[in-house]
Each structure stands twice: as C-alpha cells, then as structure tokens.
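# nightly structure sweep
# worker-07 picked up a monomer target from the shared queue
# config: single-sequence mode, recycle default, output format = structure tokens
# input follows
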Amino acid sequence: MSKEHLATYLNDHLAGSLVAAEILDHLEVEAPDLKEFISELRADIAADRQQVKGLMDRLDIPESRIRSQARSGR
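# output follows
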C-alpha cells in the first residue's frame, strides 16, 4: 500500500470517528438509559483516535483539515 493510500485511509478513519462522536451526542439525548454504554464507547473512540493520530505522527502523515472540518461542521 502506498503512503498516499495509507494517508487517505487513516484520515477517513479519523473523520469517521468524528461522525461517531456526533451520533453519540444525539444518542445521549434520545436514549438516556444508554448513558453508561455511550460513555464507554466514547472513551474507546477517543483512545482509537489517539492511536491513529500517533501512527500518523510517526509516519509523518498530516491530518486532513478538509475531512476534519467537513465532518465537524466547521
């Protein structure tokens, strides 16, 4: 796999984690009985993001501002 393809994959993974966080925000409001599960899942997603970002740093792969801004509504 080329570094360009890997960069695309990792940036897509980060963008997906932002979407997941947004979905969890909505679920927290709509399904308060799932609060503990949502909290644990949010922590897992945050840990995963840190792992991906660390890998990207080690491989000198920049985080796509376009993907992060498009997903987070900035």
